[in-house]
Amino acid sequence: MFAGSLALTDIVLYALGVSNPAQTAFTYVTIFVVIYLAAVYLVMGAGLKGIGMVADYGGPLMLLYFVWLVWFISTKTSSFNIPAGVGLGSGAFAVMLGIQTNWWATMAINISDLSRGAKSYTAVIVGAMVGIVVGQIVGTSCGYYLSAFTTYILPQDIILNFAPGAIAIILGLFFAFLAPFSTDVTANTPALVNIFTSIFKLKWKYAVAAACILAFFITPWWNAANATAYLNYVQSFAGNYGLILGPIAGVLICSYWVLRKQNLDMKRLYTRGPGGYWYHGGIRYSGLGAFLLAIVLCYVTAYALPNTAGIAIQQWNLYGSVNIPIPGQLAWYTGVIYGFVLMWILTKLTKEY
After folding, report:
1. How confident is the model at residue 78 (pLDDT cuts 50, 70, 90)?
2. Same domain, 292 and 159
3. Which of 196, 205, 259, 302 could form a disulfide with 327 if both were Cys (CB 3.0 to 4.6 A apart)?
4. 254 and 205: one domain?
């Protein structure tokens, strides 16, 4: 949300002729946080139809623009050549892909919330593979190349400094707004809205309004001067929480796609108590054990491969003073393998189907 609000701020400041919008934007970003959340309310208030329109049209348009921007920048001058050792086969790119996987794996695991409006099972599979997997790989590659070409990290800075002409800059900044906006309305906000509708029994539009109000107050707009530090913290967190998401994904994939195949009883799945998949007081020992052991093995792998980019143990600095050893950004990939294998083994041993 903060990144999208910054992009909106940059659009207005650039249109007003401010010489350096990127540096001035933090002063006015609070105003555009409100505008951003108003846009979220308008789109999500329309329900799945509004959310679907953003997903259907926003993603492809953004991707086309950034593919074009990569091509444009890479063909302008030799000074933008990518340094040796940081191409798509490098450890640096693997780390970037790992970070992006951590972001998108969250949405993939929660695909049921995003697929309720799908017309067929095939549409869900194709949409997930093309929209999430292919989209992630292409989008991450474009972002990685743009950062390598220009040495800038934020897309707003890249667009402001390198896009050719006012139209390309304003259009690019709009897409820089649309990128986090589309993620928020399709992946981030629906979970919170569902909490308000299911627990507090609010109607959809009221639940969306409540989610937007809550989002405004938990966004650190009151300390916009330190926005860069917040963004860096979020980026660091995104590089580390794959340690948890990878094993979860491995357990789920093995359980639903391999062990059960077509034998999943949907009624039992949503039934609380002994009539459902209740196991031992609601706890499935094989799943919990596979999850925890997979995390342990991620640490073992990271310590065993201390010089491997993206896998070795790193120190995650929490609150500026607490250092936590965390396997590198590729922990999601090692975790999903361990979670899958351990889930299969432990389920066979415990007979918890």
Report:
1. low
2. no
3. 302
4. no
